[in-house]
Amino acid sequence: MNAFEVTGLNLWYGSHHALHDININIPKNKVTALIGPSGCGKSTFLKTLNRMQDLVKTVKIEGQVLFEGQDIYDPKADVNEIRKEVGMVFQKANPFPMSIYENVAYGPKIHGIRSKKELDQIVEESLRGAALWDETKDRLEKSALGLSGGQQQRLCIARALAVKPKVLLLDESTSALDPISTGQIEELVGELKKDYTVIMVTHNMQQAVRVSDYAAFFLLGDLIEFAPTDELFNNPQQPQTADYVNGLFG
Ligand SMILES: Nc1ncnc2c1ncn2[C@@H]1O[C@H](COP(=O)(O)OP(=O)(O)OP(=O)(O)O)[C@@H](O)[C@H]1O
Questions:
Q1: Mean pLDDT of the chain, nearest integer
Q2: Where do the ABC transporter domain residues begin and end (predicted)?
């Protein structure tokens, strides 16, 4: 079963044609890594999956992106609902300057949940889901800005989980972290795929190998190859993929 079915996707920033005719089916409840050299369109593609590109004025998009069979670019599609179902965590942790509890409760409150009991439960579940509960349960009222970088990034994952998404998009979410925090998030991603589809941009090929089930290799706006991660790294079908995974460029 696929989470996303993308057909003939093209994207321009003004006159710059940044994604060329992308066709890919991204499987549900798996981890898919987007890899490729800097500037090849990984983040651009990731952001087409929850319409984050709508925020960039010069962007033009053609083609189709189906999420669970629904066309997310249909003029009648509800963008807020899409962004609730397809959550995103960025490269740099960006907790709100408020308590740990309020960071996680923020999204559910915006979506209309008022009951303290229900919010308490969502906060606990989300922090547990992000492997942060044990470290924070005694300091929920303390500022989120007092957490370490790795804890802040897991808090951002908890914040994304709190609105009960189906998909998590991670845009180089470990690139600013030390190896121990990176390892914790990689372990967490392995847990998350039981309940969520995870799509992650990573610069780090070892990370893609460690964490992902499928990998998509982008080069200069083209999707060159998409395959189970083992196959893409050990038996690439395209010469450009072979050169990249063998470290010839990038
Ligand atoms: N908001 C924007 N406006 C104009 N051009 C952009 C914008 N964002 C990205 N681009 C251009 O689109 C191309 C793809 O960028 P993108 O950030 O998707 O690449 P990437 O593969 O994620 O790179 P990196 O690994 O360095 O983050 C680049 O040429 C970039 O300069």
A1: 95
A2: 4-245
Q: Are 73 and 64 in contact (CB under 8 A)?
A: yes
Question: Would you list the domain boundaries of the chain?
Answer: 2-246
**Ligand 1, residues 15, 19, 40, 200: which to mutate, most atoms within 8 A of Cβ?**
40
SS (H, E, C) the chain: CEEEEEEEEEEEECCEEEEEEEEEEEECCCEEEEECCCCCCHHHHHHHCCCHHHHCCCEEEEEEEEECCEECCCCCCCHHHHHHHEEEECCCCCCCCCEHHHHHHHHHHHCCCCCHHHHHHHHHHHHHHCCCHHHHCCCCCCEHHHCCHHHHHHHHHHHHHCCCCCEEEEECCCCCCCHHHHHHHHHHHHHHCCCCEEEEECCCHHHHHHHCCEEEEEECCEEEEEEEHHHHHHCCCCHHHHHHHCCCCC
In this predicted complex, what is the ipTM? 0.96
Among 17, 19, 35, 43, the mutation site with the greatest number of ligand 1 atoms within 8 A of its Cβ is 43
**Interval 41-77: pLDDT, tens:** 999 999 999 999 988 999 999 999 999 999 999 999 9
Contact of 63 with 8, CB cutoff 8 Å: yes
For residue 17, give Cα distances in angstroms to 10, 37, 39, 203.
8, 17, 12, 22
The residues near 175 (Cβ < 8 Å, ≥ 6 apart) are 91, 202, 203, 204
Q: What fold is seen in the domain 2-246?
A: Rossmann fold (3.40.50)
